[in-house]
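Worked example 4.2. Below are the chains of a multi-component assembly; read each line carefully before continuing.
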Amino acid sequence: MNSEVLKNAGIDVEKGVTRFLGDRQLFENILLTFLEDETFNKGKNALKKEDYKDLYECIHTLKGVAGNTDMTQLFRTTGVLCDYLRKNQTVEVKEVNSLFNEVEEAYHSVLAGIIAAREV
Amino acid sequence: MANTEVNKKTILIADDAEINRLLLKKIFGEEYFIEEAANGLEALQKLREMPEIAVLILDIMMPKLDGFGVLEVMQKDEHLRTIPTVVITANNEEDTQIRALSGGATDVLTKPFSSQIIMHRIKNIMTRREAEKLAEQNRAYKRELRLMYTDEKSGLYNKNAFHRYTARMLEKNHHKKFLLFRWDIDNFKVFNDWFGTEVGDEYLKKIGDFYRKYGKQNTALMTYARYDADHFVCCQEAEGFNPEAITKIIDEYMGQLKNLDFEYTPRVGIYMINDPTLDVALMCDRALLALRSIKDSYGKRFAWFDDSMRESMIEQQEIVNEMEFALKDGQFSAYLQPQYNYDNGRLIGAEALVRWKHPVKGDIMPSKFIPLFERNGFISKLDEYIWEQICILLRKWKDEGIPLVPISVNVSRRDIYNPHLFGNILALLGKYNLDPALLHLEITESAYTQNAEQLVTTVNLLRSHGLKVHMDDFGSGYSSLSMLQDVPVDLLKLDMRFLGNDYKEERSGNILNAVVRMATALQLPVLAEGVETKEQADFLRSIGCLRMQGYFFARPMPTEEFEELLTSVNTTSFLGDSFVESIEGSVNFLSFSFQSALLFNSFVGGAAVAEYDKRNETFVTLRINDQFLTEIGTDRTQYMERGQSVFDYYENENKQIVLDMLNEAIATDKEACCEVLTRVTKKSDEYRWLKLRTRLLVASSNRHILYVVVENITCSKEKTIAYEDMVEKLTTLTNNIPGGIGIFEVADKMQLVYCNDTMAVMFGYTHEEFMQKFANSFIASIHPQDREVVEKSFSCLLNEKKLVENCKYRQICKDGSWRWVNMYGRLMAVDGRIPRICALIMDTNT
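Applying the procedure described above to all two chains together yields the following C-alpha cells:
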C-alpha cells in the first residue's frame, strides 16, 4: 500500500507499523479489516435515535481502534466527542451533531485512503 | 489446550474490538500463548476454565459485562483475585483509572499505548508473580518442615527433630562434653481429665515458654524438646550445669503456673553423655531410667543415670526378649492365695497370681515383669493364658468332685480396651463348660477412672452373663466415692497396705471403718487383702469386714497345695495357728491395738460403739464385740447382712423407749438405761428382753457416738412379770371377798401391815383413813372390854402354835358406834422374821 495516500487520509503509517512491531503486512491487513468495521454505523444510528449512551460507547470504541492504528485525525475527533458526551449530562443536540460531523469526516477520509491505497 | 512448552505462560486478552486483540496478539504472541475473549462473560469463563492464565489484559468498554464488572467478580473469587490484571482503556480520565485500580487492577494503561511499554509492564508483572509463587512455596515447605519437627502445643521441637538436631549439635561440638536431662509432669493424663485438655494445652505452652526463656538466658549450647506426652528433654553443655539449680528453676517456674490444686513435684533424670555418637533416643531412654528410679521417692529430686540402671534396662530388655518363649514354654504359672471369712473360718475363694519360674534365673518377681508387660501390651497374652489355666483347673476339680470355690483372676487395664475380651472369656467358660459364677474378675481401681464409659459397658456385659467383678486396690486410685454408685462392681477389695498402714493408728482405723460402712450402705461386700496380723483381722471383723486375704492366713501357694486345702475336711484349720500380740495400746474403741481389742472383746459384756443420728433417727453400730451378738441372739454374719442398724430389732413402742434413753443420755451426759422387748430375727417369733445402758462418748451437732452395754434379762424379766401378775391376781381376789382381811405383825404392839378395802369400808372408813388411824396400833379399834379376848386369841396363835383361832369382839366404827364381829385368825409362815397373822373379820349376823 502507498504510504503517502494513507498519510494523506490521516493515518500515521510509520507509527502504526512501529506499533505493530514493524510488521507492515499485518498493519496493512488490519487496515483492510477496518473497512468492515461496523462501529461507526452503529454510532450513527445511535445518534439518529438520540441514544447518547449507545453513541458514547461506539465512539469510545472507535477511538480506541483509531488510537491503536494511528488514525490520528479520527482519534482526535472521536476523543473530543467522547469528552463532550461524558462531561455533559444533558446534551445539546446541535453540539453533538456538529462534533459528530467532524468524526464522520475523519472517518470517511480514512476509509477512502485505505481503499485508494489498496489499489496501488 | 494444555501448555506443553515448559514455562511458556498464557495471557488472556479481553477486548470487544478485534483490531485491538490483533494488536495485542501481535505484541505478545511470540513469547506467550494467547487466549481471547470478546466480552466480560467470555473472559470470566475462560479464566475459570484455564487456571494456567498468568495475566489478564482487560478492556473496560465491553458488551454484556464490562471491565469493571469482570474485576468485581474476580475480586470475590479466591483464585481469580490472584491473577494480575492490566486494564487498558481508551478513556484517559483519571477517575476511570482510579476506579480500575481500586477495583483490583494491577495496572492501567490508556490507548493508544506504546507496544514496548506494555510488553515490559506485562513481563515485569509475570516475573513478580513467579517470584511470589516461589516464595509462597518456600514458606509452605518451611511450615511443613516445622510441623514435622515441632510439637504444636508447646512450640518446642518434637521427638524426631530433637534427635536430629541434638545429634548434629553433638557432632559439631565433639570437643565439648554434654549431658541430657529429662523431666516430666506427673500424671498429666489425670490433669487433663480433671481440668480439661484446654487447660492441659495451656500448661504445655507455658512449659514451652519456660524452655525458650531458659534457652535465651543460658549461654550454653543446647537443644530441647517435648518428648512424648508429658516428658521434656534438654541436651546441654555439661560445663556449668548444676542439677540442684535446674531442679529449683523448674520447680519455681512450675510453682508459678500452679494456680490449680494439682500437686506437682518435678523430678529430673540426668544422663552424662560419654559417647556422643550414641543414638540420641537411647540417651533419652537412659535419662528416663534415671528419672524412674526416683519416681516414687519423696526426698530425691534428681538422679544421675548409672550403670545399675543400665543393668535393669538390660534386664528388662532380656525379659522382653524371652517373654514370648517363656509363655509357650510354660514358665508362667498361677499361684493361689486363699480368701477366708474370718467370722466363721470358711474358705470362700482364692486369688490367682502369676509366677514366673525361669529355667536359668529362677523365680522372677512379678514386680519386675508385670509393669513392663503392662507397658508393652504383653500382659494381655499373659492374662489370657492364666485365665485358661484357671479354667482348666476348675474343670479338673469339678470332674474329680472336689468342692469348688470361685477363683478371682486379674484383668489388666489393657484388657478392658480389647474388644474381644468379652468374647474370649465366654469362649473359655464354654470350652471348659464352667459356671460363670466360678470365675471372678478383678479390675484395678485406676482402670475405672481412666476410661469409665468403656469399662462400664464391658463390665455390665460380663456381669449380665453371670460373671462377678471385683474392684481391686480400692483406695489406691483417683476415683471419687460417688463413682461407686454408678460403677457396676460386685465386691470391693481393700488393700491394707494402702488403707491400713501408712497413717497413724487412729486415722487408718477411721478410714477403714468409713469405707466398710459406706460399702455396707451401698450393699457392696468388701474383702480386705494384705492382712498380716491378728490385730488387723480382729479389727476388721469388729467393723464388719469379714472377708480377708493375706499372709496372716496363707501365702500364695501352688495349685496343688491349694487343692489339698480344698479337699481337707477341716476348713477352719487356719484359725488358732498364729497369734501376734503387741504390748502397747491405749483404750481407743476404734483402734487396732491389742489391749483395747481385748478389753472390748472379752472384758465388758455385750458392748457396742454406735452412732446415733438424731435427725434421721438412725442408730447404727460401728463396732461390736461377740457378746453383744450373743445377748441379742444372732451371729455376726447375720447381723452384718442386716446392715448394723440397731433399730431394726425393735418394734413400735420399744423403739421409742430406746430413743428416749438415747436422748436422755445425750441431754444429761450421764448414763441412761432402759428395758426393751426385742425380736431376735425378723422372721422368728422369739422375743427377748434386753436391758440397755448407754453413755455418750462423742457429741457433734446431729450425730452422737455412744457406748452401749447390752444384757439379756429375759429370764429375770419373765420372773418379774410373773410376779407382778400374781400380785395383781391376789389383790383382785382380796378385794372381792365380803369381809375384811388384815395382816398383823405382833411384836410388842399389834400392827396392821395390810388390810383390804372391805376392812375399812365395813367400819365406815376409807382405806387411807383406816390405815392412818389403826395401822400402828390395831388394839385401839377394839372395844376396851373385848381387848383381852382378842389379845388372848392372838397369843394362842403365836405361842401355842395353834394355826387357826377365832374370837368375837366389838370394833369401833367411824360414826362412833360399835359393831360385833367375828375374827378368824391364822398364823402365817414365820421364816425367821417377825410372825404375821392373817385374819378374816366378818359381821356376826352374817
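Take a moment to check your reading of the output against the notes. Residues 570-588 of chain B have pLDDT under 50 and may be disordered. Chain B touches chain A at residues 16-20, 22-23, 26-27, 59, 61, 89-91, 93, 111-112, 114-115 (CB under 8 Å).
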